[in-house]
Amino acid sequence: MTQVIELSGTARRYDGAGPPALGPLDLTVAQGEALAVTGPSGSGKSTLLNLVAGLDRPTEGTVTVAGTRIDGLGERALARFRRDRIGMVFQFFNLLDDLTVTDNIQLPAQLTGTARRTAATRAGELMELLGIERHARAYPGRLSGGERQRVAVARALVNRPALLLADEPTGALDSASGEDVRALLVDLHRSGQTVVLVTHDLALAEACATRTIHLVDGQLAADTRAEALR
Ligand code: ADP
Question: Mean pLDDT, to the nearest integer, of 56-67?
Fold first, then answer.
């Protein structure tokens, strides 16, 4: 089984005193898994996500994502790794409001040097897949929250990332839009996408995750497979 995430003896300490904010812990996530990360505020969820995304480095241990050991990479190599291998979706969408939907989705592909035409084709496929093609020329400010999150998911997928990371993707949505994004993440997981999501939304974790880890004080307090939950 191919592992998409491998943490070994991994810890992140923000200051010298006291226990680390996260770890030390060992964790592997296989290709095709949909992992939900839960835990109270301050338990280390964001710290874990940042380490896996290559937005931060551990103070101990190793972080290997999609076969690349990223804990020792320099800033430029890390930025390239994030651009090429990681798709990220955030609570507040983080779209660029002065670019159209199509241009928002294409942007990460263009940053990797993909030709504009190829990027446009890929963006078109994703808009169709996610049911937002009628908004292709709209600006994000005109869309509902659920539609904006679909645009953000399309943007996250444009470079075919090994890993899709989602940080409270339904956190800013009304219940109908939340349901819509939940269904979308379930579909993506069924199509084989490896997903890690941090969420307080139990309905999302239950619908989408094949596995849930629960963090308490930076430690793995539980690691449950969906088969055991249902
Ligand atoms: P969660 O995402 O579960 O709310 P975090 O990963 O944000 O938890 O935080 C875990 C712990 O690390 C908390 O005690 C938090 O205060 C601390 N922490 C997080 N980021 C920083 C930082 N940049 N500097 C210092 N302490 C931090």
Answer: 97
Looking at residue 126, its amino acid is: L
The number of the ligand 1 atom at minimal distance from the alpha carbon of 44 is: 6
The pLDDT value given to residue 1: 76
Q: Using the structure block, give the residue that is written with the tokens 């496929």.
A: 125
Compute the distance from residue 43 Cα to the ligand 1 centre, in Å: 7
Strands (E), 31-73: 34-38, 60-65, 68-69
For 111-144, write each residue's pLDDT tens digit.
999 999 999 999 999 999 999 999 999 999 999 9
Pick the residue whose CA is nearest to atom 14 on ligand 1.
42
Q: Given the CA of residue 50, which atom of ligand 1 is nearest to it?
A: 6
Distance from the first to the final alpha carbon of the chain: 24
Domain of 72? Answer: 3-94+158-225
Report if residue 72 sits inside a domain.
Answer: yes
Task: CATH number of the domain at 200, please.
Answer: 3.40.50.300
The number of folded domains in the chain is: 1
Q: Separation of 9 CA from ligand 1 center, angstroms? A: 19
Q: In this predicted model, what pLDDT tens digit does every residue of 145-195 receive, in sequence order? A: 999 999 999 999 999 999 999 999 999 999 989 998 999 999 999 999 999
Q: What is the pTM of this model?
A: 0.93
CA-CA distance, 110 to 83, in Å (whole number)?
A: 11
Query: What is the residue with the minimal CA distance to atom 17 of ligand 1?
Result: 21
Q: Which residue, chain included where needed, has tokens 């835990």?
A: 39
